[in-house]
Amino acid sequence: MKERKPIGWIVFVGACLAVFLLGLFASSILERRSERAVARVQFLTPIAQWESDNAKWGMNFPREYNSWELTKKDDERTKFGGSAFKDYLETYPDLVVIWAGYPFAKEYNAPRGHFHALTDVTKTGRRSDKTPATCFTCKSPDVPRLMARDGVAQFYAQKFDHYVPEVKNAIGCADCHNNETMALQISRPALKEAFQRMGKDITKASHQEMRSLVCAQCHVEYYFKGKKENYLTFPWDDGLSIEDIEKYYDRTGHVDFVHAISGAKMIKMQHPDYEVYSKGIHAYRGVSCADCHMPYKTEGGIKYTDHQVRSPLLNISNSCQVCHRWSENEIRSRVEAIQTNHQQMLETAQREIAILHLEIGDAIRLGATDQELEKPRDLVRRAQMYWDYVAANNGMGFHAPQESARILTKALKFATDGRLAVQLVRAAHGAKDFAKIPQLRSKAEAQAFIKPYVEAQKKASLAAPPATAPKAEAKPTRAGG
Questions:
Q1: Cβ contact 132:230 at 8 Å
Q2: What is the dihedral of CA 205, 207, 208, 211, to 10 degrees?
Q3: Helical (H) or strand (E) element with 258
Q4: Cβ neighbour number for residue 318 with a 10 Å cutoff
Q5: Calpha distance 114→175 (Å, rounded)
């Protein structure tokens, strides 16, 4: 007689096990949904309007707050960035020559994390008793409250020192979020005003667009309009390209400073990150700033945004690999190759611009007139503006590689054309060879070299009668943050 196989029991046990596993799975889903619902709607304590203390927001949103606190870290490095300290003037002494007569020649360091922004702008060597309160605009969530209390124009018109006792909190929650709904919002007027002048309605922006626009409140090119007003203004009326911005500055006649060596009327670009990003493939594909620099994280069933704003190269798995199915080494190598090429182009143009300033200065020494130097000065102004549009942008060209390379090519052409033009002027005044260009190997050497020129410029400015004094826009008294 054949022995019966316990098939029925096997099926029964298997079915029980399957039901048990499905039950666990369903329970996990319900638990995760419950976690997600609680995280979205539960405010343990109300958040007041204009609340600038980030810790009070953190009571309701501890995950976001804890990740934001990591912006304190100042020891992370990538090949061309990170949060670690770097003195650009020491690394590139030519920059001291390029900004002779402007506060950036005193100090220019790599930016640290958002937590340090307020400290860095307060302690920078570029600050003086003439520094306007406008320099506080992007550095603290205390600013919207003060603007609401005192008025926007009145805030800009005050001196920096006036608000030092009241601006205490580092860049954080209130800069980007509504206190009642947590929706992204624009808290700084300059971006709204720029959109209005372009005929665009920023209130129609989608949530995904807002994930870049909250960054564009600060990570842009800007200037302070008016000698007394110091009104923060984005030069976007004609568009966001370097040619559009150049057109705006040509039309308005704005000048950030007069170069102490060449006498050229210069524009100092700030950090046109949004403008350059808008010309790149990521913007074209609808990828926002936050997608790469503040990627999503999950904890249990909760999905939230990582507020440790930093280079994607420090978080490749959550940033880049969400879309790009390559290894971390492949992604890093690709990015660094693009950045290395741009660094080489930047340094080439940078050197030519510095030499051009010195050659124009030598032509002045030989007796060249302002009329004779009009063309070389115009070319060095444009060369530096184009170079700085890429140099001041974070990312070492990566945000829009083709556009950045195009702009640097034009910058180099302006510089080489300027050098040819000034040689003709020098030759007309008896020069038989190129000007002697000093080898400045450190920030200290470069600053010592420009010092006599800067002092002579200040002396001439003080001695000039009111009728012949430079226009207010040309005085090197204001520097952006």
A1: yes
A2: 90
A3: strand 257-258
A4: 15
A5: 11
Q: Residue 25's Cα: distance from chain center in Å?
A: 46
The terminus-to-terminus CA distance of the chain in angstroms comes to 94
Best CA proximity match to 437, nearest among 274, 221, 261, 246: 261
**For the segment 353-404, what is each residue's pLDDT rounded down to a tens digit?**
999 999 999 999 999 999 999 999 999 999 999 999 999 999 999 999 999 9
* HSE-CB of 167 using CA atoms within 13 angstroms: 28
How far is residue 392's CA from residue 274's CA, in Å, rounded to a whole number? 12
**Dihedral of CA 54/55/56/61: which sign?**
positive
Phi and psi, residue 357, nearest 5°: -60, -45
Alpha-carbon Rg for the chain, nearest whole angstrom, is: 27
Strands 296-299 and 302-305: antiparallel
* Model pLDDT for residues 58-102, shown as the tens digit of each residue: 999 999 999 999 999 999 999 999 999 999 999 999 999 999 999
Residue 102, SS3 per DSSP: coil
At position 52, the amino acid (one-letter code) is: S
**Residue found by looking up tokens 């000048």 in the block:** 255
How far apart CA 194 and CA 278 sit, in angstroms, is: 15
